[in-house]
Design goal:
The complex is a heterodimer of chains A (109) and B (353).
Chain A lengths: L2 E7 L5 E7 L6 H7 L21 E4 L10 H9 L7 E3 L13 E4 L4
Parallel strand pairs in A: 1-5
Antiparallel strand pairs in A: 1-2, 3-4, 3-5
Chain B lengths: L1 E2 L2 E4 L3 H12 L4 E5 L6 H5 L5 E2 L8 E2 H12 L5 E4 L3 E6 L5 E5 L4 E4 L1 E4 L5 E4 L29 E5 L3 H11 L4 E5 L9 H12 L4 E3 L2 E7 L6 E6 L7 E4 L2 E4 L3 E4 L10 E2 L2 E3 L13 E3 L4 E2 L7 H19 L10 H4 L1 E2 L5 E2 L11
Parallel strand pairs in B: 1-9, 2-3, 2-10, 3-6, 10-22, 12-13, 12-18, 13-14, 21-23
Antiparallel strand pairs in B: 4-5, 7-8, 8-9, 11-19, 15-16, 16-17, 20-21, 24-25
Classes of the chains: A alpha+beta (109), B alpha/beta (353).
Chain lengths: 109, 353
């Protein structure tokens, strides 16, 4: 079983360092749900199809991340509270290269 | 007053399938949904997405599944109150319930089944100072009656299908139609994008991209919007308008159901999963994504199961003295309330000489 450490700041501003499995085909949105760092019903509403932006996160570390797909780009262009470092958690696949990743969950909208 | 045996709140897959299971028990259903069409998330969010975990369907498009469910329940003649949200639940002295929708329609039933999914879909409002003050004073988040925009200067913001579709539709009705989007790319059906391109080229739609609306103004009603071109050094430009329609999609909210005295946990309704998915209010059930219990999975197939058990319990509740055993459709066939009849063909019994 392989894992990386990821620091997630919740919507109240509290930082949580969590163990993220990289061998379970999980993404960052699912990780946040698995650790219940945002209330059910306020995150991952579309289930991970890049269709709702409820899992928007700000990426605070310099990790190289996969390019945004057209769907993610388009969704972020319609979402609120978007910053330059915004990503949809559901589109960030958990891999070994994310060791030490730091993200903050964007406000609910 | 609309009366039925089971009043179902939410016309998603779980609510629709409940009509079928109720129909087998000769119980009549009425459904309420805030969206203008049945199908819930499947129809609203991802009609073209394939689903792979519906038993018996290796692959089915969400929109197709809704069509199939509608076909399956047709013999049981469900009633629909669509495009309006269930606001209040009142228990009557005779044990029945009255649910009133936002448009004032009253629905009476001895059993209420909440199949509300993630809640009712509410328009997502952009963060614009003063926006709410202009609601119904030129600002609307959905187009209810296109005719009110005839001869008006209309501004639409957004980059999805609804922004494109309404721009196309209102281009002929409005005196001026402006479409603003934060990017130059639109996320919509290709033919809608092409149609907007055509209307832009012929001067029927004024397209401003990439741009954002940064302010609104007007005396008692919206009269202008301030438009900032993205990346431009110049100050925001003032655009004279009569109407502003921000179309930034819908987001589900549990809404008034949260105030009905039901036990809420994790934005969902707590139910008894050991028996019949009944809530803490006897006679009120919650099925599908809207409920929670230990081990809950928000899957369509689980919603179908929950709907089935709920109907059996509802039957017992409505007819406490009737004896009944579940009958297979292969044996009993289906007798619709419309007089239709489906059944397995009879085996031929004939001697062989």
């Amino acid at each position: 079983m392989s894992e990386v450490k990821i620091t997630i700041t919740d919507r109240e501003g509290t930082a949580h360092q969590v163990d993220a499995p990289t061998d379970m085909n999980m993404n960052l949105m699912e990780l946040i749900r698995a650790y219940e760092l945002a209330p059910e019903g306020t995150i991952g509403i579309c289930g991970g199809m890049a269709m709702c932006a409820s899992c928007q996160c700000y990426v605070k570390s310099e990790h190289p991340l996969p390019e945004k797909s057209d769907e993610e780009e388009a969704m972020l262009s319609e979402a609120f509270h978007v910053r330059d470092n915004s990503r949809l958690g559901c589109q960030i696949h958990l891999t070994d290269s994310l060791e030490g990743l730091e993200v903050e969950i964007a406000p609910e909208s | 007053m609309i009366t039925s045996d089971i009043l179902i709140i939410g016309a998603g897959p779980t609510g629709l399938f409940a009509v079928f299971e109720a129909g087998l028990l000769q119980l009549k259903c009425h459904l309420i949904d805030a969206l203008p069409q049945p199908g819930g998330q499947l129809a609203e969010l991802y009609p073209k997405k394939p689903i792979y975990d519906i038993p018996g369907y290796p692959e089915v498009l969400a929109g197709e599944l809704v069509e199939n469910l509608m076909e399956q329940i047709r013999p049981f003649q469900p009633g629909f109150t669509l495009g309006t949200r269930a606001e209040t639940l009142e228990k009557q002295d005779d044990g029945t319930f009255i649910v009133t929708t936002a448009d004032g329609t009253k629905h009476k039933a001895p059993v209420v089944a909440i199949a509300g999914g993630l809640g009712s879909f509410e328009p997502r409002k952009p963060q614009l100072p003063g926006l709410e003050a202009y609601e119904d004073k030129g600002v609307a988040y959905m187009v209810k009656d296109p005719e009110i925009y005839r001869g008006k200067r209309v501004l639409i913001a957004g980059g999805g299908d609804s922004a494109l579709d309404w721009s196309i539709f209102l281009a002929d009705i409005a005196s001026e139609l402006t479409l603003i989007h934060r990017r130059t790319e639109f996320r919509g059906a290709l033919d809608s994008v092409e149609k907007v391109q055509e209307l832009k080229d012929s001067g029927k739609i004024r397209l401003i991209t990439p741009a954002e609306i940064v302010g609104l103004g007007g005396d008692g009603k919206v009269e202008f919007a301030e438009v900032q071109i993205t990346g431009s050094e110049e100050a925001a430009e003032r655009l004279e308008i009569d109407a502003f329609i921000p179309l930034f999609g819908l987001s589900p909210k549990l809404g008034p159901i949260g105030n009905w005295g039901l036990e809420i946990e994790k934005n969902a309704i707590r139910v008894d999963n050991t028996l019949d998915y009944q809530t803490n209010i006897p006679g009120v059930y919650a099925i599908g994504d809207v409920n929670t219990y230990p081990g809950k999975l928000k899957l369509i197939l689980c919603g179908f199961h929950e709907a089935t058990l709920m109907c059996q319990s509802a039957y017992q509740r409505i007819y406490p003295d009737k004896r009944y055993v579940m009958k297979y459709t292969t044996v009993g066939g289906i007798t619709g309330f419309d007089g239709s009849r489906k059944e397995a063909p009879k085996a031929v019994v004939r001697s062989i000489d």
